[in-house]
Structures are given as C-alpha cells and as structure tokens.
Amino acid sequence: MPVAVRGTLARLGRFFGMGGSLPLVLLAFNSISAQVSGHAPAGAKVALPQLGLHGIADSSGHFVFDSVSDGRWVIESRSSDGVALALAVVRHGAASVTLTNYVAPSATAQSTCSDTTDLATGGQARAASPLASFLSWRPAQPAPGTLIEMTAAGDSIRAIWGRVADEPVLFRRDTAHAFVALAAVPLDVTTVHAALRYRYADGTTVERDTTVGVTAPPPAVVASAARPEKLHVAAEFSRPATTNTTRRIEGESELARTVGAIALATPPLWKQPFMRPRASRITSGFASGRKFNGTLTSRHTGVDFRGQLGDPVQATNRGVVALVADFYLAGTVVYIVHGAGLVSGYFHLSATPVAIGDTVERGQIIGQVGQSGRVTGPHLHWIIRYDHTTVDPLGVLSLGWIPKRDYGTCRGPDSSSR
Fold it and tell me: How far apart are CA 376 and CA 300, in angstroms?
C-alpha cells in the first residue's frame, strides 16, 4: 500500500477513534475490461449504487465488479465495522485509484446517557405524565421545510429517543440538565407528529406522542408552485429516463441516504453559526416550482447562488466530507456531514479540492462553481438535509443551537434510521 494511502487511513483512524477497526476498501482498475476489484472487510456487502451493481466480499475480503464504464463512481462497503465510501476514478486507457474512506464515529453513549434499555429488556412502561411535559420546541409553530430545535430538561432523565415526522431523532446532553436534538419539518405537511420515549433513573419508561401545528407556506411559495419558473436545459434531461438512467438516479439517492445515516450517528461537529457558501446574489429560492423544457415539472429543494465558472464555494460550517461524486442530475457534488443529523450539499461544481474523509472548517474552500449536471448555466445549488429530509438552507443560518459539550448519543433501541 502506498505510504500516502497508509497515512490517510492512520489519520482517519485517529480522528474517529476507531483504532484498527476502520473498514478498508482498496480499489484497483483494469482499464481494458473496465473491471473494478478491491478488498473490504470479509463478508461485507459491497455496491456500486450508481450502476446498480451489488456483491459480497469473500472470506479474504476480495470483490469484483465487471462492466464498469469510465467515470467517477462511488463504491460502498457495509459491514459490522461500519460504512465505507470510496470514490473510484475509472478512465479509459489508464489505471487510476482513489482511496479515501469515511466511517461514522461510534454512536455508543457514555455513562451519563447510556441507560436506554427497551421495554422488552426489563424497563417498566408507565402512562404519559406531566414529567414528559418539559419538552420545548423552537419555533413553537414551525414552517414547512424548516428545522426544529428541541430541548428537554430534567435531573432524572437518562435517555430520550424516538421519531419526529417519521425521521429518527437522537437526543444528546448539551449541558448537565438539558437534552437537545434537531428534527425536520417536511414540505407540504400541516402537522408534525413526534413519538418519543423518556427513560428515567428509576428504570421506568414514559411514552408520549405530540402533534405540532405547522404554519401555512409563504404566499410566494404557493404562487411559485402554481406558476413554475420556465427553464431550458439539455434535451436529455427532459426525455423519458432510460432504465440505466433510472437505476443511476436511484443509486445516487441511496448514496445520499447513506450520508444522512452517517450524519445521525455523528456528534455535532460545529462550534460557530452556519454561513452562506457564497456571498453572491440568490437567483432561485427554496421550494419554488420549476418546469424544464416545457414538460418536466419539479420542486426546487435548495438555494441557487449566482457565480461564474471557477468561483470559490465555501463550507457552510465545520464537518467531514462524506461524499464526493459525479451525479446525473446534480453534477459534481460534495456532501459534508456536520453531525446531529445535519448534512450540507454543494451541486453542479466544476472542481473539488477535497476528498472523502477530509475534515473541513467553516469557510474553507471545498469546490468551485460549475455547470455540471442538469443546469441552465453556471451557478451553485446549496442544500441542507436532516437525515434525508430537505429543509430551507437559509433557515440553518439562524440555528440557535451551538453545541456546548457532547456527552454521547442518548438513543434508544428503536432509534435506527432504517
């Protein structure tokens, strides 16, 4: 293994505290037959989601994918050691290897919030009581497509877990007496349902369901949906999708969901407010309606910033690069995990100086404006997601929660994202 590769793995292992358990994906390319082979943990499920290829590493960790075309593809490895993503660069006539892995840090809770015994393993349930009424929401009545900050306080609480809007929520101790979590309000909903469990020091568990009202969408969003913006893109993006194109788009969506799961298992990594990735003018807002080439209608799930080819794009906050790839619709993308479920994405880039596994700081250059994928011209498309629910990116700029201290993930047995 090249010295540079060994050094990268060692740095990642030290950063995440995984020691020698870091899952390893080694990629080698046969440029003539377009065959991708490599090594992963023995028995790991391996996939090239963009091309719909799946397999299992053998007892020695070896795997092979045949019929791989030229391009930049992401190899995914799933094993008991965690999830590994590696960018595979395949070019006709030349062998090329890119090896960088990202593995979610351990989500094992520390002693202050490790008591998450399920009802089936000894805890005694009791009916919902005023003890559970300490949970507060900010804002009290959120808008569609926004984040919710949840805070709960109580000396006797040992863990809180559950789902909000059918997404898992993982509470963490932010201070000695407060649990905090983020959640997302999907677009086009009028209420948000929260199903939570509270675990107390005496071993009892309180189950509580709460419904939160959602404000009506802003008039501008309603008007835009009724009269979508008319855009012209390359003809291929408005034709009926072929089987291969559909498979690729579905595979890229699965990769994005994997990044969301990593974000849920990662503690909050930011210590400063979020910032815009560019200071330029916004050319298209969140949730606006769009019609491509007069036929294909969609919803804009990000914010577009004006830019020329090569203009810098900055990280909106501190985090770890979880994905760098070339997507069919989004073009060249960078996904950054910020932890506590939050992910930021930067689309249509022309260059990316970062790699999977890099830790980036707030304001660091992570790409350049481009016009890759389905675009009308050069610009930056910026997204924010909680797990895989997309929210208005501008809302994260006013996020009031700045993590004070991480006590571990206070989670329950049913808090898995899948």
Answer: 14
In this predicted model, what pLDDT tens digit does every residue of 179-207 receive, in sequence order?
899 999 888 778 888 899 988 888 899 88
In whole angstroms, what is the distance from residue 138 CA to residue 134 CA?
13
54 contacts: CB under 8 Å, gap ≥ 6: 45, 46, 47, 48
Shared domain for 11 and 85, answered yes or no, is yes
Looking up tokens 């932010």, which residue turns up? 174
Q: Say which CATH number the domain at 323 has.
A: 2.70.70.10
Side-chain half-sphere CA neighbours of 86 within 13 A: 30
Does any domain span residue 57? yes
Please check whether residues 248 and 367 belong to one and the same domain.
yes
User: Domain boundary at 31, 57, 90, which?
Assistant: 90
Q: Show the domain range for 352.
A: 219-387
Show the tokens assigned to 257. Answer: 């969901």
The C-alpha torsion from 14 through 19 and 21 to 25, rounded to 10°, is: 40
Q: Round the CA-based radius of gyration of the chain to a whole number and report it.
A: 22
Stated pTM of the model: 0.79
